[in-house]
Task: inverse folding
DNA sequence: CTGTTAGCGCGTTCAA
DNA sequence: TTGAACGCGCTAACAG
């Protein structure tokens, strides 16, 4: 009665639709339809089938179904890193929506490496997923891999680190305004020489934040010192070295605006090593989603993005693509607001 | 020359093995073998096939392959939450190994809910993944769903929040010792009344940490006050309420040992609200993987687990199961060491 | 070294 | 309302 087959080098009993059919003296197609709750099947048969399925602990093979339906019930999330509360929160939002829709979530980490991003994009042309959500790597300055992916018909939603030159939906935050507010905050704390720290010269969010920074300086008649606009890599040790040089050099700033949490943390580490007091001697503001109280971080003022909501909105938009055939060319550009959370710096 | 088919409600050109065969005047199976670099195929043919595949931008359909081979090239990671540096780091390690092995990683979040965990476990019987790595939810006090999954032949590796009553590999840390060390650390800081805060009364790691806590108290002749051994839920507001009551009640402790980072943070938040000074009036130690400098958290002493390494080891063990048919009954119990990182509290 | 053939498990025509 | 038969795209057994 029970069929055995070697599966992955081990014995596994496989209950399939055929076995249900045999046990119930019904045809395979009837079973299939009953399980899919088709209108063509009588209620009596349906319940008989369901009961037998339950009894034999039947689980439909997702790959057979995907092959037949050309639908994987799976989405991909491609992000630079996961050890970053922003992305962790975004995944939380994405996963929430995916669970609602009975979808599965594949995770791909580029580690800020464009080659990996290209590799994932190329690979995902094969139908493994029904759509992807992506936040670009800091190295990404060319979008051919994404254009090709899109041309294959794979729906793409960008979030946070978006690509504006591709016509697709995106969810992001008011980076220009936040950059402006962050800089103005430091100015209002008395800073005269404010450094801007960033990971990338390519990302749209980086450039918008920087523009905000520059506008704020201009507004307050502070001249822009190009030497204080700095780019870093994924290498923390190197980054700290650079920051250390900046903080001991002739252009030493009295305020730092870090566009990424990890650069703020690197700055903190350097300050501790150099015995620079924060915020007395140096004020720091940073984009960050660390969920810690001000007691834990008495001197960290942050710009906090609605990360969970961003993930959720991005997923919802992706499902809008997936659920309605005529939505493929209806793109949404959603811009959410970030929040400046003042802490120690203001009290200083 | 190019075949079209409706895919997911949209037009998609599908280049399959058959088309390559036609274009090259070869049989389908030859193509298949050439692409899989089979020894039976001549180098000339192989390169011809590869070039044509490249030219037509051929991507093998993973679901067809999985259906045929009974192998999904996919693993599942089931964890309680992702907004927690421990799990984020663990995923990082897992993903590193998976990328090496050309595997795909599905993420499932239980949100500390046993019903979700059961749902995932039952669902994953269907062959969607070749194996799973799991860290139990704090509610999990029954393992039937996992036993059934294992009986279906799905390899399982437990990490951190393991299940000792199921014969399978696991990776965890020296929780008893860490609990002991954490408590002794507080005692050496002068604490006489130490509270133990935990999420669960079921998890093995919780119990081991608590045993360590109790042993340390005993060793130093401090009697155990059951009212200071507290369990919390996933509801932060409720947790802070409970902590607040504890810190204002007659049994007010002078030290807190939080077995989970979020409980330490809740404690910090409460202290801030109640104007309790840390570490002067209350010392706190916590399991935590926050990657922040001591400047950022001047008063947080932590027990840090080698989270990345745990993820990596867990994945490696899973692949040991997957790669060798005779490894299914060879289980490894790996116990890594955690590190106590003293901060403000010691200086206090 | 290559081709022919037969499924993997399911969904969906078409026919009854 | 149900059944028979075909094929999704690929791999593997068996021939040659």
Result:
């Amino acid at each position: 009665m029970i069929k055995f087959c070697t599966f992955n080098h081990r014995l596994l009993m496989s209950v399939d639709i055929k076995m249900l059919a045999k046990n119930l003296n019904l045809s395979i197609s009837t079973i299939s339809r009953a399980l899919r709750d088709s209108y063509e099947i009588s209620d009596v048969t349906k319940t008989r089938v369901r009961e037998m399925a339950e009894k034999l602990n039947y689980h439909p093979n997702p790959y057979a179904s995907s092959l037949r339906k050309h639908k994987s019930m799976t989405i991909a999330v491609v992000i630079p890193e996961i050890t970053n509360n922003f992305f962790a929160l975004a995944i939380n939002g994405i996963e929430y929506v995916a669970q609602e829709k009975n979808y599965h979530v594949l995770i791909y980490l580029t580690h800020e490496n464009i080659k990996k991003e290209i590799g994932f994009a190329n690979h995902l042309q094969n139908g493994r997923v029904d759509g992807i959500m992506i936040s670009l790597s800091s190295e990404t300055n060319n979008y051919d891999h994404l254009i090709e992916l899109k041309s294959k018909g794979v729906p793409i939603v960008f979030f946070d680190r978006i690509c504006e030159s591709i016509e697709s939906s995106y969810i992001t935050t008011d980076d220009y305004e936040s950059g402006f507010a962050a800089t103005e905050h430091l100015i209002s704390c008395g800073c005269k020489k404010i450094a801007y720290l960033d990971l990338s010269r390519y990302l749209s969010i980086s450039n918008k934040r920087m523009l905000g920074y520059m506008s704020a300086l201009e507004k307050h008649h502070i001249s822009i010192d190009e030497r204080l606009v700095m780019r870093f890599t994924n290498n923390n040790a190197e980054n700290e070295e650079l920051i250390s040089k900046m903080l001991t050099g002739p252009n030493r700033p009295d305020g730092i605006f870090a566009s990424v949490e990890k650069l703020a943390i690197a700055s903190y580490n350097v300050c501790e090593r150099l015995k620079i007091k924060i915020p007395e001697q140096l004020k720091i503001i940073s984009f960050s989603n660390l969920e810690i109280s001000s007691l834990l971080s008495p001197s960290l003022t942050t710009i906090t993005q609605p990360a969970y909501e961003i993930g959720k909105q991005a997923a919802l938009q992706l499902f809008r693509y997936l659920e309605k055939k005529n939505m493929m060319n209806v793109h949404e550009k959603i811009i959410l607001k970030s929040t400046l959370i003042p802490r120690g710096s203001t009290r200083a």
